[in-house]
Specification:
homotetramer, 308 residues, alpha/beta, TIM Barrel, eight-stranded parallel barrel, 12 helices, globular, 4-hydroxy-tetrahydrodipicolinate synthase activity (chains A, B, C, D)
């Protein structure tokens, strides 16, 4: 029943939603996946995000998955994505998942927002809807949402809304944004937790800039766990060695739209989920892409052996 | 239990959703509103559209309103907007409202669609989700959705998906699109019903180009009913006289975002709904705008008297 | 050699660029057009705007037209649109036209701007490029530019950049924006001139909210001149009578993309320009649209006679 | 005086535009840069692209740079970017640079294009403007232009416009697009040259899918030259070894907006240009980013030594 806070750290993995080949939710794989993520050392889970195929789930299914993941996580923190075009749906799902024991919720801005005032106003409305006692993550992902949030606007939200305790940072470029946010804290503003997305492809630099960890779904959570630990221990060179080994694959998995197919393919291959199936509309991985991923996996194994 | 078809004609009014001042659904006003719309001569209703504040309703509320409106409509056709970011929600709501007796559903394209193939593919997925037996309306509203659908793409959808029986036409400019679609029918393509939106501000020209009527929510449905009837009877000049009288107000109500506040204010003033309240986030009508609308209403009354 | 200032008032007509049927610039029509605009009572001209087909002109042509219009305007103020993707082109054209005697320049924001800071930063760069002594107009036209500028951001620009003396206001809805800007002036901020665009379709309300006039290109400048004068004299009802008579046509001319074809067609019909030709890519007015405009012109004549 | 054709192959480097610290064009660096690029084995140059700060140059400067680069290139092919909001500017610059001996021009679609028909129509207008005898490159870069061009639309352009001889491929994801285009050629469509952008971060896979080379500006052209040669010789594993060594830096240089600062910093450090200065508005590389790049350069050197 732990809740996220401004001091949360480590790797919160963005979980996929496992389906059977016929499109039904694969509950056996859900349990296996939760175990896998924690076995690999992640600190928490984030479910029902963009990469969790949330919009393809009925409300009942969303609740059912949340319930199962929470049960299997046995008290470790689980954040639930509740982004929706309307506040009613956000409020409804938030209430349901917080009652079930979620650690907090994550909200991305709707694509229609443009000015700073509109963005700040939106998050005020979100908090008025979900309640001031629910800790929430602001997802800052302009590539997908189309909404650009300046450091000043994030600062205004931090100051106005104490329940905003975490930033899912995936602006691109975004390293200076981390530095700017941390500098404001050094100058007196309250701290927030910053976990980084974007498939992890800037993780060493993000950690060096002051991030608290990663929140993304790369199919090798152990890479992120190791990089975060090594960076945290000041061993940035070793962290980058590990990172570099995975980068060719991480880059491949980060392709917009296609990335989830890569991720699910690798997770199936690793025995985590039974099927790489996505619900409609899901981009299937073609024969050539499968061969490309297989080749990268072989090279990864070889390179890790060299580094061992 | 009537269903829309490619031969549907007349005025399908876009209904507002009446709320009490405290944000609760105002069920007494729902009944009064349905009666008002049909008393004014409209042929059908469309509920849960963008201007019906659909994203502000919980799923339960959406179903409850649909049930009430269908009961009060007593067999006259009611279309339900089911647009959503994910196919699961579209499928869920469609099944529920069709089971309750809706005449069809309306689906706007999600803003991420760009190429012709993506748009056609999306509607294929929609039909695979809701079933081929559910007649649906394609809402073509680039100003709000950001998705531009060429006449050729609409044609491809018409040819691929027989259950697409109606176009809610609100491209702007859009008159040539109507002509082009009708020309393709004259050349042998199957007919679809074309009802026009955009607050009705091009209705006389749209009817002359071959539209079958209006589907929009202007607070004076009698204008649209009269214009459609007069245009249908070939009396385009009288139709335009009526239209011109309402145009200063219609123009004012068509302001994006603000329009719903104008519409609800007028409907309250006309005694149709008890409160102009919108759920959060709703743009309130300021004092100056209220005075502007009041002035336009007085002028409208005077002008209609002159025309009587 | 007059220059615009924060006290500029009246109608600044957005001029078309007259072409011959073969696409060459029609210099005879340029003179006739300038005379026509001033004969109808406008106070100034704005050339090389979006509706002046500026991007279809070579740099030499832009300079040549500016020279000719300035000569023919004989000292009355001419604003030149200088919007471009790069600051170099803005600086180059501004220097050229100010040297020739332009009254000021107009700059719309490039579509890539999103956050308040980006917008303010852009206009800082513009002023650094064109020089602090060149009075400029900020064109606020989100429908076309895609950039939303909040009243707060406009205020920040007003405070930072004294050479921003005029707002071409065409946000939609935009009435409250005028009120908000004027309220800030009442509270002590320096005054700017606000001239309204959007084809003039909100002109009576805009004047009542505190606008200083119109800057748009409706093919009947006399409507805007009369509305501004009557509104300025406090006779808002007569202003609105005139306005309402023209509204069916103004609405038709305001169709995005198509509007310029309507405008040029009417100007040709009124004998102002010799040809309605646009340079490629220009949307031609089809036969049906021509008939629709002709019909609206006849009705306008009749209605004006009734009002005389 | 060579011209590009559908059979062009190899690395066409996207050249930067060297400025002095005071913003003047650094002509000495221009020559040194051209020599550097060809010394490293590139086959041609592309100048005045987005990463060449083209919109920051006056027309005269653009011509002057083209002249100098062409002279120094001594007959090797130089493509010139001519994208502009209006066809007039495209026509003007194209005529000028082709007269000077450019190998062809490159045109990206303006951001307002949406439907397939609009895109195809735009390129028809481009060819009508620049002439059918000028070979041109279609730049397909949705991340920056906002325009998505489906393989089918590219195919329609290939069939309609014989002077479209080359695709600058930087869709993301884009591997399947290459395969689809090559498959259409295998089925009989005429061949085009496909050179890949996106900073080179998918180059090994792109070559394996059938690309003819790279057209991007990574500060180590020798990486791309080697990868293309090794891939061409069938030695994909060695190609990928080289590629992987550079990937951490290539990823860093590919950050939108910031990338050019990284590239110019590295080119200055390599002694190619005298100053990393960009013209306004240019994102400067902060102290932390400089340290990050320096660290990546050291690691690169070490890794290349391991691979030697």
């Amino acid at each position: 029943m732990s809740r996220i806070s401004a001091d949360s750290k480590g790797v919160y993995i963005i979980a996929v939603t496992p389906f059977k080949d016929d499109g039904a939710i694969d509950t056996a794989s859900v349990d296996r996946m939760v175990d896998f993520y924690f076995d690999k050392g992640t600190d928490g889970l984030t479910i029902l995000g963009i990469m969790g195929e949330a919009p393809k789930l009925t409300q009942q299914e969303s609740i059912a998955i949340t319930k199962q993941v929470l049960a299997r996580s046995a008290g470790r923190p689980v954040i639930v994505g509740v982004s929706a075009p309307g506040l009613a749906a956000i409020g409804e799902l938030t209430k349901a998942v917080m009652d079930l024991g979620a650690a907090g919720v994550m909200v991305a801005p709707p694509g229609s927002l443009r000015t700073d005032d509109q963005i700040i106003g939106y998050y005020r409305n979100v908090v008025a809807t979900i309640g001031e006692d629910v800790p929430f993550v602001l997802q800052d992902f302009p590539l997908v949402t189309g909404v650009q949030i300046s450091p000043r606007t994030i600062g205004a939200i931090i100051e106005a809304l104490p329940s905003m305790v975490m930033l899912k940072h995936e602006d691109w470029p975004g390293l200076d944004k981390i530095s700017e946010l941390r500098a404001a804290e050094a100058a007196g503003r309250r701290r927030i937790s910053i976990l980084c997305g974007n498939g992890g492809v800037f993780l060493p630099e993000e950690m060096a800039r002051g991030a608290d960890g990663a929140m993304t779904g790369f199919a090798f959570p152990e890479m992120m766990v190791n990089v975060c630990k090594l960076a945290g221990a000041g061993n940035l060179d070793r962290a980058q060695d590990i990172f570099d080994a995975y980068l060719p694959l991480a880059r491949f998995e980060q392709q917009p739209g296609l990335g989830l197919a890569v991720r699910k393919y690798v997770l199936e291959k690793r025995g985590v989920i039974s099927s790489q199936a996505q619900r409609r509309p899901g981009a299937a991985l073609g024969t050539k892409a499968v061969a490309e991923v297989d080749r990268l996996l072989l090279r990864l194994e070889k390179r890790l052996a060299e580094l061992a």
